[in-house]
Amino acid sequence: MKEIKVGNIKGVVGKIVYDYLEVLEHPVGTIERLPVIIAQGSKSGPTLWLTGNIHGNEYTGIPVIHRVINNLKLDELEGTVIAIPSLNPAGSRVRARYPYYDRKDPNRLFPDGNPFKEQPKEDITETCEITVDEDKKDDELSIKTEKVVKISVDQEAKEPKVVDPLAIFDNEELYPSVQELIWKNLFEIIKETADYLLDLHNAFIKSIPFSFLDRVLYNPDVEDDNKKAEDLYNRTEEMVRAFGLTIVRETTPTKYIQKKLHRSTSGAALNYLRIPSFTVELGMYLDIEPEVVDAATKGVFNVLKWAKMINGSIEKITSVPVIAENEAVRYIGHPRTKKSAIIDLKIKKGDFVKKGDVVAIARDIFGRPIKDEFEIKTEVDGYVFMINEGILRYPNEEICWLASPDTQPMVDKWPKKSNK
Fold this sequence. Notes:
Blueprint: E1 5-6, E2 9-10, E3 16-25, E4 31-40, E5 43-52, H1 61-71, E6 78-84, H2 89-93, H3 137-157, H4 167-170, H5 178-193, E7 196-203, E8 206-207, E9 210-213, E10 216-218, H6 225-243, E11 246-249, H7 253-258, H8 265-271, E12 277-284, H9 290-306, E13 329-333, E14 341-345, E15 352-353, E16 358-363, E17 375-377, E18 382-387, E19 392-393, E20 400-405, E21 411-413
């Protein structure tokens, strides 16, 4: 049976090991630690990673992990469950989304697997040999003229530039943040052991629990990478369906890269490590809902059954609503307000709305209708699965998020031009 290690923490066959992984020394000398649980079964098999609380005010993943670990039967478990109940203890301590030592979103800082992130600009010159037909002098002149222009542009592009000795200090890539350094080290540990990864989150206060299904991206310049991506996507989709919650597809590739979702915990595991992985959003943040904890716990055990790590049949989730079953839907923030307004909602989470339905009424602070925008209507069909908090909206803010029919491919190329 293979040895399971998380840093210096070693798994023990047939036992649960509880320990801390030291990840950072603060300037005042105190140590930042991540709680680690290694539950290694009596039989060999795959390794499932469970992570939670990467955003410090999203709590539901913690009791879900507790319940899963406390109900595992190690004598029947084939493989290992490695769990980190809190990826962000610093944020949890101050009830904040981000850790106080790094004010970037920690779920956008895992290693970047985009193969085109540092691609140089394509050379506009051509290297093919030009042959001239002596019988066609006009064409010859045209070709020569075109060639002269291209060579001129190329020579201009290759003109020596003034060296800037300060440029190196402006390159952010050379100075990763402290959280990026922590994740780089953790990612190497995950890489050594993980066969599957499941990251537990929370969404808006008014949201139904759901799973994100990411698109699998491939490098078109690598032979057969598209076929491998298809296989990876199929296994990932099976895993997400086994979990049992509502499934919402992630956004399209260009926006996925722009939003740095390929550098989320599950996005990096899927599209960089190339292991089946996904994010689960478990209802409201800032607190927990017992029925959601029940549903998510059942979902994790469903995944263990799907992976053949434990015996048993996959169980249907009934404690929370499951919508858009057997439908391909993608999220959009829609509709949005055009003017600042007080919003009077006419929908609730889980509703299905059709194009033209009134989603909200827009009023001013006196309760009077906002001119030209009294009724805010949806322009597409979709399921309301998240509603923005509060009743105040500024121009272009979302009223809610819809899960609407998606026709875009789930296996696609890495965009060659992207914003990091």
